[in-house]
């Protein structure tokens, strides 16, 4: 799985726009082909970013990835 682009994108944008899950998958270069699995992986990445203090909050809503720094 590749969600490595996640912290990069949100770290370089003061107020990041929500991203569609599919757009984010392409940005990360993920080869994941199962939307449900990709959603789970991104959700786990959101949790890690919060736990590590890199963002205030990160979540998925309506197939959009959101972040507050």
Description:
The protein is an alpha+beta fold and about 70 residues long. It has one domain. About 45% of the residues lie in helices and about 15% in strands. It has three helices and three strands, in the order H-E-H-H-E-E. Strands 1-3-2 form a three-stranded antiparallel beta sheet. The radius of gyration is 11 Å and the shape is globular. It starts with a helix and ends with a strand. Pfam families: TrfA (PF07042). InterPro entries: TrfA. This is TrfA2.
Q: Assembly state here?
A: single chain
Give the overall form: globular
Distance between the terminal alpha carbons, to the nearest Å? 24 Å
What percent of residues adopt helix (DSSP H or I)?
Answer: 40-55%
Instruction: Give the strand line-up of the largest sheet.
Output: 1-3-2
Tell me the strand percentage band: 15-25%
Give helix and strand order, one letter per element, not per position: HEHHEE
Helix tally equals 3
Mean pLDDT: 84
InterPro entries: TrfA
Protein name: TrfA2
Organism: Zoogloea oleivorans
Pfam families: TrfA
Write the layout of secondary structure elements.
Elements (H helix, E strand, L loop, with lengths): L4 H7 L7 E2 H8 L6 H17 L5 E5 L2 E5 L1
Antiparallel strand pairs: 1-3, 2-3
At a glance:
With about 70 residues, this protein is an alpha+beta fold. The protein is built from 3 helices and 3 strands, in the order αβααββ. Strands 1-3-2 form a 3-stranded antiparallel sheet.
Task: Note the main attributes of this structure.
single chain, 69 residues, alpha+beta, three-stranded antiparallel beta sheet, 3 helices
